[in-house]
Give the backbone structure.
Amino acid sequence: MTSTQTTLTLPTVHLNGTSRKRLTDDYQAAYEKLIEFRDSFRSIEFNARDYYVQSNIAFSEARTERDIMEHKIGSLMQYLEAHIIHLAS
């Protein structure tokens, strides 16, 4: 896991709130599913031959869009990681 540099509002574990175990288990489960999704996303066939009939720049545009989505997945992973690390302390 990597640390996030963004300041997040993280949960406070207390007697009247959700238990540390429940929060940890839920964030960990989401993180594991996200890793599985990220791997599935990365394994999608992505080839210029599927875009060249549209225009000379279609594949480049598609690559940029895909990179943006990959970055968003990474941001969500960092969000979940920050919660997991916070709850472990």
Observations:
- The helical segments are 20-42, 58-88.
- The chain has one domain: 20-88.
